[in-house]
Amino acid sequence: MSALPLSGIKILDLTRVLAGPLSAQMLADLGAEVIKIERPGGGDDARAFGPPYLKDPEGKNNNNNSFYLCANRNKKSVTVNIATAEGQDIVRELAKSCDVMMENYKVGDLKRYRLDYESIKAINPGIIYCSVTGFGQTGPYAPRAGYDAILQAMGGLMSVTGHIDGEPGAGPMKVGPSIVDYMTGMNSSIGILAALYHRKANGGEGQHVDVCLFDTVIAALSHYAQIFLVNGQTPPRRGTWGNGGMPAGVFRCTDGELMLVVGNDGQFQRTCAVLGAPELATDPRFVKNNDRVVHGKEIMAIFAGLFLKKPVAYWLEELEKAGVPSGPINDFSQVFSDPHVRSRGMQVKVNHPFEPDLSLIRNAITFCGTPVKEYRAPPLLGADTKDVLATIGYDEAKVEALKQQKIV
To answer: Are strands 355-361 and 128-133 parallel, antiparallel or unpaired?
Structure first.
């Protein structure tokens, strides 16, 4: 088996909370050595975003919660107080031998510590320096802090998410998980990988990669935003209705709900047959998808009445036979017990000091030649400080002295 794709790449990770750490984790999964810099005592802000926390074997309070665990596997944790001169020296010394440095501080914050791009570039001209922020390195909002929910609102995502206008509970709605953070993490990884390739292909030139949540959420709105750019109109909130094929949405059955997406006219004809109403396929209001979009409320109401006649399992089986895309509305218990999810190995086990059989979610990328086979648990705070600092000449006595001064 070949080495992992990013074996030999070394990353200094000064990011905290979610978007940046997720990006660094993706790269660590693929073989990069990621050195995570955390504050002595408190660590990454995400360590306080609990409960739930893992149970300490001795019953003590700890900082290993689900929020931190989801974004920090396969890394080394080194505690450094970058507000001190000695701490800044440590980070700069580590940066000299790194391919990538990542940070998500407010714009300009690291310049006062001489840990900004220009300062690091001066000691390592080939460095790929990735800054992850709410609003980017330029523009009137650049100094602002940014959190996922704020960017969902400002970027337009909430304006097109939620119940259909006129229905109970209508109005802008946030997507459940921190989806903008996750997408920003992916964009950061893409930017870093592209810059690494550019450096290799162009003789060692590094660069500053600027990724932000605001740009990311706007770009991710994709065809929704393009509708506005074409006709000047913001698409309406559609609830669970689909975004192309019609009918598409959640339908209630006798014992639960299912999600249906009728993607083309052939699928519509087959769905009508499954529902016992083949005549709908020749109804002038519904023959073509564009017709069904115009008469969306009518066809959705008719389908709603038909689906109420039988249970979910019956409809899913019949729709599967007919080649019509549909699926159950799963909770997480059902997701992780699903035979397909299990066969794909989406739940992986790691040996954590507090829980020897800790479950995590695997990296979503698979390779035939360089598969990610093993995962290391997210590190305890400062677990690798001594070993990593030894690589830049700090012996145990020096590290212990720095600990006493709360520098590491």
So the answer is: unpaired
Give the C-alpha separation, 123 to 114, whole Å.
Answer: 11
Q: Is residue 183 part of a domain?
A: yes
Q: What is the pLDDT of residues 185-220, one digit of tens each?
A: 999 999 999 999 999 998 889 999 999 999 999 999
Q: With CA atoms as reference, report the closest residue to 189 among 374, 25, 368.
A: 25
What is the rounded average pLDDT for all residues in the chain? 96
Same-domain pairing of 203 and 268: no
Residue 146 sits in a domain of what CATH number?
3.40.50.10540
Asked if 317 and 361 sit in the same domain, the reply is no
Active site residue 44: no
Domain enclosing residue 285, as ranges = 248-328
pTM, 2 dp: 0.94
The whole-angstrom separation of Cα 296 and Cα 280 is 13
> How many H helices and E strands in the chain?
16, 11
Do residue 170 and residue 300 come from a single domain?
A: no
367 Cβ partners below 8 Å, 6+ apart? 5
Which one of the listed residues 99, 116, 148, 181 is annotated catalytic? 181
**Same domain? 76 vs 178:** yes
pLDDT in tens, 99-122: 999 999 999 999 999 999 999 999
* Distance between CA atoms of residues 3 and 267, nearest Å: 45
Measure Cα distances from 290 to 209, 247, 285, 296 in Å: 43, 11, 9, 9
Q: Are residues 381 and 264 in the same domain?
A: no
Please give the biggest Cα pair distance in the chain: 84
Between CA 244 and CA 296 the distance in angstroms is 11
Does 31 lie in the same domain as 158?
A: yes
Residues 162-192 as b/e (b if ≥16 CB within 10 A, e otherwise) read beeeeeeeeeebbeeebbbbbbbbbbbbebb
* Number of structural domains in the chain: 2
- For residues 115 and 187, membership in a common domain is answered with yes
